[in-house]
Amino acid sequence: xxxxxxxxxxxxxxxxxxxxxxxxxxxxxxxxxxxxxxxxxxxxxxxxxxxxxxxxxxxxxxxxxxxxxxxxxxxxxxxxxxxxxxxxxxxxxxxxxxxxxxxxxxxxxxxxxxxxxxxxxxxxxxxxxxxxxxxxxxxxxxxxxxxxxxxxxxxxxxxxxxxxxxxxxxxxxxxxxxxxxxxxxxxxxxxxxxxxxxxxxxxxxxxxxxxxxxxxxxxxxxxxxxxxxxxxxxxxxxxxxxxxxxxxxxxxxxxxxxxxxxxxxxxxxxxxxxxxxxxxxxxxxxxxxxxxxxxxxxxxxxxxxxxxxxxxxxxxxxxxxxx
Length: 323
Hints:
Layout: H1 2-7, H2 13-25, H3 29-42, H4 47-62, H5 66-78, H6 83-99, H7 103-120, H8 123-139, H9 143-160, H10 163-179, H11 183-200, H12 203-219, H13 223-240, H14 243-259, H15 263-279, H16 287-299, H17 303-318
Helix pairs in contact: 2-3, 2-4, 3-4, 4-5, 4-6, 5-6, 6-7, 6-8, 7-8, 8-9, 8-10, 9-10, 10-11, 10-12, 11-12, 12-13, 12-14, 13-14, 14-15, 14-16, 15-17, 16-17
């Protein structure tokens, strides 16, 4: 429908802004990027143009180009005087910083964004900041307070009937419950999120739920079920061009296959994951993923595969071609 409207003269900056957001939400990032660039070109120095720049930064982050995303967001922030836009920028920076492992900086940025959203009286935007803050707190090891922020955020999303944000919040809550050791609750929460995303036709969000659920199932020794879910998630992220999450799913798939006795497929999957990290210059920043995967493989008795995975992580941190 959006493409047909564009073909019949829907070329105003306002419509292109709307269309870019639609394509971004549905995972069609090449089209979203192209339209955002057109909005920027026609609306420089306006709120519309700034929103388009933020959207492009978010696409860069989803594609694993986190340093580029932060650089673009820093450039945008320099000239912004609008609190609503500044809140969006700070929220996006927090997400990128968290994924880079710079969690303390991420929390600072997120708390600034939350305060601005509260001052503006924008409850939905504040809830999005609370959701991000909850995930960051969990990453910092403060699971209980992180879960508390997620509960607050979900309540606001329920009042506003924001289905997408409710499901995203449930996924983050499932991860938090897993980190707190509440594995049964985590499995129920992530399973519910995956089912709700499928019913809503939100394939990317479903893939996020399945990737996290496959990790949890590996922890519980349900390797065959984990491999099935990780395979679906990896394929979805591959189609979307989202390398970080594709690698996370592939590493979960590697463990699931190894645990199911399919060692050859597990090693092939491991090589695919490492190749993506090398290609995207992410091997160094994600060596802890390889280490965690290696620990689980060693615990399962596959010491050879674990050693090769650890070696790839060590070589990646030292290899000059990754710089």
